Amino acid sequence: MLILLISFFFVVLIAPKKESDQSNLLITTIITIMKRLLLFSLIAISLFSAQAQKHTLPKHLEYQALEPGLDSLSMYIHINSYHKKYVELLNKSLTGTADTGATITQLLIHSSKLSDMARNAAGGHYNHTLFWDILSPTPAAKPSELLNTEITKSFMGMDSMKVQILQAANKVFGSGWVWVIVTPEKKLKITTTINEENPLMEKHGNVRGMPILGIDLWEHAYYTKYQGNKKEYIQAVFKLLDWELISRKYSVAMESEALKQLNSSADWAAFSKFHDVMKGLVMNMGKGEMTPIKSNSANLLTLAKALESEPIPAEYATEPVKAAIKNLILACAQVNDAVVKKGTDAQIKEKFATIRDPYKVIVASLSKKEDQFSHQ
Ligand SMILES: [Fe+2]
After folding, report:
1. pLDDT tens-digit profile of 228-276?
2. For residue 132, which of 30, 227, 249 has the smallest C-alpha distance?
3. Which of 86, 115, 268, 363 could, after both became Cys, cross-link 124 (CB 3.0–4.6 A)?
4. Ligand 1 mean position to 78 CA, how many Å?
5. Domains of the chain: residue spans and CATH
């Protein structure tokens, strides 16, 4: 900034005004240098501003552009009272944090590291931006051949997909969103989230993926025109969906780095469930309490079997992990057997100790992945 001010002083205020001044070689040289410094400073400032760029409300259609499907009053309230507020809250909650320069997609993929306010605001901003993106007053009615093929494969066609979207939306109790996403396995799926959660987020409760279509199910999106008739509102949205824009999102999603990252950080839900129960049992046995293992041995065995029967995220599905799962099931079966046969506490403890080694193999593979991910 100091360089900028000095440069400005030289270039603008004491620049030679008369022809005779230009003969002064020293002043001319200084001015030339200062001009360069001024240019350099302006470039540096613009680069710095770009890096610390704040999230902004995207350009939107005229409020009445989507009439009669979406009325202008609803659109005005939606953009100015909701979306705008999410953007403001997001910028406020990120100020002074390491996430200031992160893209909205990266914020969502690693959302568990954010504060509640930042996470909700990031979801709200992303969700609404996508919603406005795929609506058009003159929508293209057909998806690309590539997307159409995938829709047929996944949902038996466009009409059937719309029925399934409606069914999923009806199951959302209260505020939320219904989505069509590309999963890390590059399949199309319909999913829903509550409030301003989003399929990119960790642990939102449903399958993760890159959204290519999202419909706002909050009452603020439709109550003014449709009151409680969510179905009629969604059918109106269907007529405004631009399938050319959605097809573009599909192509981008299929090749996106974000999708690869979702795959790398995929939750292993079955192991999380096993781990939660196991953690409690280890703690209790450490205190000499045997009742929890006696009442949970069958449950622990069921959870261990689920590790084998449910899909293992690709990055964890190594041969040592698969072998450890088999040993884990065997060990849990022996613990359950000892409990069922009313073995002594010492016998149950002895069998329980055999769970430790295969369990450690699996935990070690997870830690390794976690470390790799955190260094990306
Ligand atoms: Fe909304």
Report:
1. 899 999 999 999 999 999 999 999 999 998 888 876 555 677 887 788 7
2. 249
3. 86
4. 6
5. 2-51 (no CATH), 56-265 (3.55.40.20), 269-374 (1.20.120)
Q: 181 has which bridge partners?
A: 189, 211
Report the length, in residues, of the chain: 376
CA distance linking residue 120 with residue 67, whole number of Å: 29
Which of 81, 201, 63 is closest to 132 using CA atoms?
Answer: 63
**Ligand 1 ion: residues within 5 Å (CB):** 82, 216, 218, 221
Give 374 Cα–ligand 1 centroid separation in angstroms. Answer: 33
**pTM score, whole prediction:** 0.62
- Provide the 10 A C-beta neighbour count for residue 305: 17
What is the Å distance from ligand 1's center to 123 Cα? 11
**In the block, residue with structure tokens 């350009």:** 59
Query: Going edge to edge, which strands form the sheet with 176-182?
Result: 188-194, 176-182, 210-216
- The answer to which of 9-18, 126-135, 209-218 has the lowest mean pLDDT is 9-18
Mean per-residue pLDDT, 143-165: 97
> Cα angle at 254 between 250 and 257, to 5 degrees?
125
Q: How far is the CA of 131 from the centre of ligand 1 (A)?
A: 9
Q: How many CB atoms lie within 10 A of CB 39?
A: 12
In the reported structure, the alpha carbon of residue 149 is separated from the centroid of ligand 1 by a whole-number distance in angstroms of 31
Q: Which of the four pLDDT bands, split at 50, 70 and 90, describes residue 101?
A: confident
Cα distances (Å, whole numbers) of residue 164 to 151, 156, 186, 191, 288: 12, 10, 19, 10, 51
Residue 47 confidence class, pLDDT cut points 50, 70, 90: very low
